[in-house]
Amino acid sequence: MSLVMIKCPVTGRAVSTAIETEPSSFRRLPKVTAHMRCPACRRDHEWTVSSAWLSGEPRLVAQSSAQKIAAA
Questions:
Q1: Which residues lie closer than 8 Å to 47 by C-beta, 6 or more apart?
Q2: Does the pLDDT at position 17 exceed 60?
Q3: How many CA atoms lie within 13 Å of 3's alpha carbon, on the beta-carbon side?
Q4: What is the CA radius of gyration of the chain?
Q5: 69 in helix, strand or coil?
Q6: Tens digits of per-residue pLDDT, 22-71?
Q7: Tally of CB atoms within 10 A around 3
Q8: Which residues pair with 63 in a beta bridge?
């Protein structure tokens, strides 16, 4: 089991959503907006599966346009 993590938009820190799941279950989560109280800044944040990752798992990051052009 791994924790679902997000980046706090205020502090930039990785924070836990307090949700634990298996990677296979995480990939099947619906694409809905979830809400949580951030332990880093104490504010409410919205997040989606596309902006979250699992602790201890490799994080897939989309290449920016500049990276794609430089690689060409």
A1: 6, 17, 33, 34, 35, 36
A2: yes
A3: 8
A4: 14
A5: helix
A6: 999 998 999 999 999 999 999 999 999 999 999 987 765 544 444 445 44
A7: 17
A8: none
The structure's pTM equals 0.75
Structural tokens at position 11: 């502090």
Structure tokens at 23: 């990677």
The two structure tokens encoding residue 68: 């794609």
- Residue 1 pLDDT > 50, yes or no? yes
Cα atoms found within 13 Å of the Cα of residue 56, Cβ hemisphere only: 7
- Domain coordinates of the chain in residue numbers? 2-71
Residue 63 burial by Cβ neighbours in a 10 Å radius (0-12, 13-18, 19+): exposed
- Written as one letter, the residue type at 28 is R
H helices of the chain, in order, are 23-27, 65-71
